[in-house]
Give the backbone structure.
Amino acid sequence: MQFNLKAVLIPVALSVVVLSTAYIVNGAPTASDSMQAEEIKKEGGSKPLSAAMKTMGFNFKRSISAKTLDELQGYVDEFHAYAEKAKKAGYSEDPEAFQTGVSELLTGLSSVQDAINAGDLDLAKNRMKALNDIKKQYHGKFDV
């Protein structure tokens, strides 16, 4: 039995290139994301709004790189839970606009959930990406 090293190495090398490109294009989680997760846990209840927003951002990044519907569902569930926490925490400088922004975010998240329920990973990820526009709008409004 003869072993052909090229037959093994070439597909492996191509897989590495494809996966690396996917991670770069999709913004896959990095080591700094793990550090960010630890920082969020440390913050805990001392700054509930800040901690909730950071966790939402962290799960947003992870959702964009999800490879399966189950993986995406976990990130969406955590994102939703922390959006609800942020809504309860409020923003004292402009509470009405803040509540409007979080409500828009939760409505958009419902459309992500609809795509997940329909089994469409690409559509769900695209709808998740669209939530970034809401974030930019309100972060600009609040100068954060």
Remarks:
- The chain has one domain: 31-142.
- Residues 12-26, 39-46 have pLDDT under 50 and may be disordered.
